[in-house]
Design brief:
Helix content: 40-55%
Number of strands: 13
Number of domains: 2
Number of helices: 17
Shape: globular
Distance between the termini: 35 Å
Order of helices and strands: EHEHHEHEHEHEHEHEHHHHHEHEHHEHEE
Radius of gyration: 27 Å
CATH class of the largest domain: Alpha Beta
Strand content: 5-15%
Largest sheet: 8 strands, mixed
CATH superfamily of the largest domain: NAD(P)-binding Rossmann-like Domain
Bound molecules: nicotinamide-adenine-dinucleotide
CATH topology of the largest domain: Rossmann fold
Length: 442
């Protein structure tokens, strides 16, 4: 393919050099003419392992550099935007991305044929469809999705290993406003066959990049919060603590999909419960308070968890102006499948809130009914003997615990008139299996 890349920083240049090495013809554009001249001599403007080898092999052949954005866009099939997106102290600074979008749009006005514009810079969710796309339409006088495609393809490379990481990606995220755009991105990345791919919309692609970095940042601050508490308490070595944490099978094993089991904890839902996580996190926060070490991250963890059950109620309220008299089956009362332990189960705050809002609640769990009734005596009047009876004559279902026993729900709820509102508080079901589906985090 003929590719133009706007911005020859770490991301733009490494992307350009690697795509050229893989056989695409790449034109790298920058406003910095000294940088452009150096690139055309095969010299990298910054040190990055293996980059100069790629430049010496491809510069002047598959890879050229220019300050002429107009010509580069005109002569290419797709344009990647890889300019900087600094944080200005208040918000993300999108000036360079928007300037590039306006310039590209002006070229598209004169360019016949379909072209795809791809944001490769890290941009906050919503930027591509709310800012880049309108800027391109305004400058080109053309229609996105008809005359040109708009994509978002975040980059995950880290400086120092950028070339190796680009050449052997752990994942390729292809975000697009439509299938046609994504097909062009597929073609661009065809030489990287074998790397796991995610095909999605532009906002989800943008969020994947930020979620990945935010998680890494959270892990570092988590380790530091634990280390600081250890220092305050005395006699605790943070290196040994984290070594003990690292050796958990959650990090060292692999699931059938080849992922560390810790990934099971990176799933949105109605919150954690159980006999350990809530009590241990709360105890550590209290212990830190006593030692004068505030556990701000863990306090936020508890607050976020306490707020999750309300998200379930919010999903129901999207469908019913009032929940007064609405017949709702709450399925799953144990804090996770495979146990009758109901301690701190999010089912309780959900049921209490539904009852207080006047809903007619039915509750069912394949093994935890007795345990649940001890915690919530009102369940006596709400409990059902079977899944079938729980879902008979109802307006809505909330699945709190994703028991295997609930696999038949799509069939049990099919052809109801009116459709039963299905709230999947664990994202355990395929949304397409229900006429009216709501899930946490969509
Ligand atoms: P950078 O600052 O190193 O490079 C940006 C380049 O864009 C500069 O050379 C600048 O002259 C050029 N430029 C700016 N406006 C231009 C325009 N209108 N036309 C042509 N050239 C223009 O930036 P970077 O580190 O490569 O980062 C680019 C984006 O990728 C950012 O959004 C960043 O967050 C993201 N990212 C960076 C890394 C990293 O490790 N550096 C990793 C992943 C993602």
């Amino acid at each position: 393919m003929e590719i133009s890349i706007i911005g020859t920083g770490y991301v733009g240049l490494v992307t350009g050099a690697c795509l050229a090495e893989k056989g695409h013809r790449v034109s790298c554009v920058d406003i910095d003419s000294r940088r452009v001249d150096a690139l055309n001599r095969g010299q990298a403007p910054f040190f990055e392992a293996e980059l100069e080898d790629l430049l010496s092999r491809n510069a002047g052949r598959n890879l050229t550099a220019t300050t002429d954005l107009h010509a580069a866009v005109l002569e290419s099939d797709a344009t990647l935007i890889a300019v900087g997106t600094p944080f200005d102290g208040q918000r993300i600074d999108l000036r360079a991305v928007l300037a590039a979008s306006n310039q590209i749009g002006a070229v598209l006005r004169q360019k016949p044929g379909y072209h795809v514009v791809v944001v490769k810079s890290s941009v906050v969710p919503g930027t591509t469809d709310q800012h880049v796309l309108p800027a391109l339409e305004a400058a080109s006088g053309k229609k996105a999705g008809v005359d040109f495609g708009v994509g978002m393809n975040p980059e995950f490379l880290s400086e120092g290993e950028a070339v190796q990481e680009f050449m052997h990606p752990d994942r390729i995220v292809l975000g697009g406003i439509d299938e046609r755009t994504i097909e062009v991105l597929e073609k661009l990345y065809r030489p990287f066959d074998g790397a796991p791919r995610i095909r999605t919309n532009t906002r989800t692609a943008e969020m994947i990049k930020y979620a990945s970095n935010a998680l890494l940042a959270s892990l570092i601050s988590f380790a530091n919060e634990i280390a600081n508490l250890g220092s305050a308490l005395g006699g605790i070595d943070a290196v040994e603590v984290m070594r003990g944490v690292h050796l958990s099978q959650y990090f060292t094993n692999r699931t059938s999909e080849g992922l560390p089991p810790a990934t099971a904890f990176l799933k949105a839902g109605c919150g954690f419960g159980g006999s350990c996580l809530p009590k241990d996190v709360n105890a550590l926060i209290a212990h830190g308070r006593q030692a004068g070490a505030s556990m701000r991250l863990l306090e936020a963890v508890i607050r976020t968890n306490d707020d999750q059950p309300a998200k379930v109620i919010g999903l129901l309220k999207k469908h019913f102006a009032s929940l007064d008299g609405v017949r709702i089956a709450v399925l799953g009362l144990s804090f996770k499948p495979g146990t009758s332990d109901v301690r701190e189960s999010p089912a309780f705050p959900i049921i209490r809130e539904l009852v207080s809002l006047g809903a007619t609640v039915k509750a069912y769990d394949p093994v935890a009914m007795e345990e649940a009734q001890k915690v919530l005596p009102e369940l006596k009047g709400l409990r059902c003997a079977s899944l079938d009876s729980a879902v008979a004559e109802i307006d809505a279902v909330v699945v709190v615990t994703p028991w295997k026993h609930f696999h038949d729900l799509p069939a049990l709820l099919r052809n109801r008139n009116p459709a039963v509102v299905f709230v999947d508080a664990r994202r355990a079901f395929d949304p397409r299996s229900f006429a009216s589906y709501e899930g946490i985090g969509m």
